[in-house]
Amino acid sequence: MSDDWTMGGSGIGLPSMTGDVSDANLTLERTDEGYLVMADVPGFEREEIDLRFADGRLFISAAHEEAGEDSFRSRSMEESVMVSDDVLVDEIGATYRNGVLEVELPTAEPVDDSFHIDIE
Fold first, then answer.
1. N or C end: fewer C-beta atoms under 10 angstroms in the chain?
2. What's the pLDDT tens digit per position in 26-81?
3. What is the CATH T-level fold of the domain 3-12+23-58+79-106, as seen in this structure?
4. What are phi and psi of 98, to 5 degrees?
């Protein structure tokens, strides 16, 4: 079972004074284990990408700078997506291949704390 939500430009994009700003195309999928977030962030190196998780929200940002003899260029992107408060923070994992960032956010097993009531 999985539910997909695609969000193009759903996060926050902040322009830089000397370069371009872009939004990652985000896909949020609900899986049996939790959530899977996929983001298109081509043109960035793994070390240029920063991931943070706080208050049920995943934050993705990246910055790239190139300096030439007579030029300077920078690109940056920032996105965030609301996931869930029941994410197991210590078990979050991420991979980055061919410009696609995948973040796995496992969630705790739902606890059935309901109480059955007999009807007389």
1. C
2. 899 999 899 999 999 998 999 999 999 999 999 999 999 888 888 888 889 999 99
3. Immunoglobulin-like (2.60.40)
4. 50, 40
